[in-house]
Structures are given as structure tokens and as C-alpha cells.
Amino acid sequence: MDHFDIRDGAMHAEGVPLDTIADAVGTPVYVYSAATIRRHVTVFRDALAGLEHDGRAPLIAFAVKANPNAAVLTVLAQMGCGADVVSGGELKRALAAGVPADRVVFSGVGKTVDEMAYALEADIGQFNLESEEEAETLSTVAAKLDRTARVAFRVNPDVDAGTHAKISTGRSENKFGIPFDTAPQAYARAAALPGLAVQGVAVHIGSQLTDLHPLKQAFARIGALIQSLRAAGHVIETADLGGGLGVPYDPAKPAPPSPAAYGAMVREATAGWACRLIFEPGRLIVGNAGVLLTSVIRVKPGVRSPFVIVDAAMNDLMRPALYDAWHNIRAVHPKGDRFEANVVGPVCETGDTFAMQRGMDRVEEGDRVAFMTAGAYAATMASTYNSRPLTPEVMVSGNKWAIVRARQPVEALIAADSVPEWATSSSED
């Protein structure tokens, strides 16, 4: 569920007409609904009821990569969420937004020495190690700083998530985690290293999952691993089950499993584990909480279908070009009739295509349209390709709205460059 609906003939974000935002800020612009974010956290938390351990509820560590906007993270921090981060920059963002350090999990295959040191100084809750070599490096950094790193290994269960190949992370050929079969030796090695405190196991098999069976398979393997690790003398206090539960992009397709169904599966799969569970939802929390609002530049005739050229482009919303991702495209002022069209942006790439031969609300030059379910992996992946400034972001709460990232002027892009003196000289000396 989201809070974007048609009232009096025009789309609103909660109590604010999207036209009000577009008139003031211009297009393209991302618009987020705080009420939707809060509701999704509440629904997911309710789905995890009964999974407490030693009086502690599961930790919901929001995947910051999905949407790192400070306003979004602040709303989540106020809801009691932690953060799953994959870089020093994301860690800084999470801490600045008020996420307590002990609710932070640091994932990612390429943590640098500087990032490790920063996270150790902040005293984060857990490092999810991706290799034995990373464990060695973290041990060295921790010992040098006289700190102890609480760690878990991310284990690759060799389970196909059944999602897009570029967002599948749990197969043996993927770069993530340690092989399941070598996990016992990795834990034995880490337990002997100074500065490390082994405390858990982690797994994450992919994103935009629409079937619970692969997750259940992966969790079964992790449950067996926890038993064998404890039998070998390791203390396993946490189990990070990752994230990845899908959201509905295409209303014509079956909806992904609900958070309630996911929670029921987790309760069954983790029965008897006796450890605190950690979850890393990202898309599930913010996907439906955002739209990309754009304007129609012109409608150009095509061989089969007309081209609706909008002022948003692949640099603003990369998912369709990168993953062939599907976004519902709705008119802000639906006229009641529909047509088939190709929706494209102004960037000089054929890949700058959002939809081909799409049945959609009929629109004309000057009309506004909204790309739905654009709150996750959208603004965060934007670039300045074609010297197009980063898209502004707006957050709405009830009848209030505010710019939470201003539109970047082109002059700022130019000012960020520097021209060496010798480049302006005609001499080659």
C-alpha cells in the first residue's frame, strides 16, 4: 500500500497535490511519502511478532543502499530501525541520521582498512565478513586500535533466488560471502584471531524475491550450520537473514509474498535457533514510498507507437536500463482514456527507455506523469550523465512537504572540475 492516489482528478502524495510540488520545484523530482515508510516498518515489524529472543525483538536494519536520503533515514531511526551499510559513507549517513551504532551492521565485499577503522571507532553492532582474508585484515586493524570487532561470516548457501541475475547474490558463482562448505574452517580461523569476537552467521541470497521457497532453502542450510558451529564450540548469538523480499511493481502480475507470509515462514524455519534475528529490508520499506514525477516534453510519432518523451532520463532512474525493470507509469491528471506508447527520456542513448508499447494513460505535451514504486534503488543510483544535474528529492508528511535534496545547478557540476594551467597554454613545455 502507498499514499499516492487520485483526488479531485489529480494525483496526491498524502495530502499534497503533486502539481504543487512540480510547480514549486520543477521536474523531474522524486517525491517520498513519510506515512508510507512508517506504515511499511510497522507492517514488517508486526510480521516478525513472536521472534523475540531473550526479551529482545529482531533488529530491523534498513538497507541504506536502497535510499540513503537523510530525511528517509531520520524517519526510520525514529521508528527504531537500525542500518545495514556497505560503505563508510553509508555508515556516516546512518549515524548522522540518529541510528545508534549498536544497531548498525556493516556488509559488503570490499571494506577498506580506513572504513574498518572508522566502524571500529564508532563501535558498530556487527561486521558481516565476506572472506577469511577480510577477517585477517579486520583483526589487524582492531588489534592496532585496541578494539574488538563483533563479527559474523556471510555464508553463501548456493541457492538460486530466482530473481534477476544482476541482483542474485546467493549462488556459488556470485562474489558474496564464503562458500557454505568452507564455513567451519573460516569460523575456526576467525576465532583464533585477536581483536575479533565471533557472534553470528549471515546470509542474503538476492533482491526482489517473489518466492519464499529459495529463502526457506537457504535458512534451512543456515540452521544446520548454526548447530554444527555451536557443536564446535562457537557462540552464535545472532543470525542475519538479510532482506530481499519483493514489492509489487507491475499490478498485472501476482503480488509477491506478504510480510505476514514471510514472517510465518521465518518462524517455522528458525524454530529452536535460540539467537537474535537480524533483517535487512530495503526495497520492502521504501519502494512503494516514492514516485519520480516528470513532465512530457513532447509526443513524437513512431512506426508502431508514439514516443512519449519525458524530462526524466536514465541518469535519474537507472533501473529500467540496468535491469529491464518495470515501473507503472501513471498520468498525474488521468483523462479517462488510454493508448499504447513508448516512454523515453532525452538522454542520447537508446537505453534511455522506460517502456515500449506500454498501455498507459493518454498524455500530451506538458502533461505530468509519475513513475510509481520509485523509492528504492532510484535516486540513490542517479548520475550526472549528459551533464544533467542530480534530481531533487521531496518528502511529504500529511499536508506538509519539504525539499530534502535540492536540485543541483549545472554550474555546480562545472565548478567541481578543475583545469590545469598547462591545459590552457599553447606551449608543450
Automatic annotation (TrEMBL):
Residues annotated to bind pyridoxal 5'-phosphate: 244, 280-283, 377
Record: residues binding substrate: 283, 319, 323, 349, 377
Active site: 348
InterPro entries hit by this protein: Ala_racemase/Decarboxylase_C, DAP_deCOOHase_LysA, De-COase2_C, De-COase2_N, De-COase2_pyr-phos_BS, Orn/DAP/Arg_de-COase, PLP-binding_barrel
Organism: Sphingomonas chungangi
GO MF assignments: diaminopimelate decarboxylase activity; pyridoxal phosphate binding
Domain of life according to the entry: Bacteria
Pathway it works in: Amino-acid biosynthesis; L-lysine biosynthesis via DAP pathway; L-lysine from DL-2,6-diaminopimelate: step 1/1
Cofactor(s) the protein needs: pyridoxal 5'-phosphate
Keywords of this entry: Amino-acid biosynthesis, Decarboxylase, Lyase, Lysine biosynthesis, Pyridoxal phosphate
Ranges of residues in domain Orn/DAP/Arg decarboxylase 2 C-terminal: 30-375
Domain Orn/DAP/Arg decarboxylase 2 N-terminal positions: 36-286
Entry's EC annotation: 4.1.1.20
Protein name: Diaminopimelate decarboxylase
Any matching Pfam family: Orn_Arg_deC_N
Keyword Cytoplasm found: no
Enzyme superclass (EC): lyase
PROSITE patterns attached to this UniProt entry: ODR_DC_2_1 (PS00878)
Subunit structure, as described in the record: Homodimer.
Homology family: Belongs to the Orn/Lys/Arg decarboxylase class-II family. LysA subfamily.
Biological-process GO terms, alphabetical: lysine biosynthetic process via diaminopimelate
In-chain residues carrying the UniProt-annotated modification N6-(pyridoxal phosphate)lysine: 65
